[in-house]
């Protein structure tokens, strides 16, 4: 319930003035732009908040993909070609 309320309000579009130009943007986008501006000016608290947001919204990295070759006439032939190429 709280998540839905936050979602509605954070995605709500609002007028924001940037560089003297008024434009519409989501509340969350305006917050993030302010945090980036403050962090860029050396504000440690803003930098910490940005890092927290990044951790919260960055998907976890999946494990490395492993490739397993199954013995077959094709892989035997490929292995032999590679061996010949490597050894001249």
Detailed description of the structure:
Helix content is 59%, strand content 14%. It is α+β, with helices and mostly antiparallel strands and 88 residues long. The protein has a domain at 2-57. Strands 1-2 form a two-stranded antiparallel ribbon. Helix 2 packs across helix 3.
Task: Please sum up the structure shown.
This protein has 88 residues and is an alpha+beta fold. It contains 4 helices and 2 strands.
SSE map:
Blueprint lengths: L1 H10 L1 E6 L2 E6 H14 L3 H14 L15 H14 L2
Helix pairs in contact: 2-3
For the terminal residues, how far apart are their CA atoms?
Answer: 68 Å
Q: Helix content range of the residues, please?
A: 55-70%
Structural class: alpha+beta
- Mean of pLDDT: 85
For the CA atoms, what is the radius of gyration? Answer: 26 Å
Give the low-confidence spans: none
Strand composition percent: 5-15%
Number of strands: 2
Quaternary assembly: single chain
Strand arrangement in the largest pleated sheet: 1-2
- Biggest beta sheet summary: 2 strands, antiparallel
- Principal-axes geometry comes out as elongated
Order of helices and strands: HEEHHH
Number of helices in the DSSP assignment: 4
Describe the structure using short key phrases.
single chain; 88 residues; alpha+beta; two-stranded antiparallel ribbon; 2 strands; elongated
């Amino acid at each position: 319930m709280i998540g839905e309320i936050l979602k509605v309000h954070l995605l709500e579009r609002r007028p924001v003035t940037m560089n003297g130009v008024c434009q519409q943007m989501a509340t969350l986008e305006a917050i993030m732009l302010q945090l980036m501006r403050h962090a860029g000016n050396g504000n440690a608290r803003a930098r910490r908040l940005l890092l927290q947001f990044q951790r919260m919204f960055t998907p976890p990295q999946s494990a490395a993909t492993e490739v397993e070759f199954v013995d077959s006439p094709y892989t035997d032939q490929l292995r032999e070609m590679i061996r010949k190429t490597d050894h001249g």
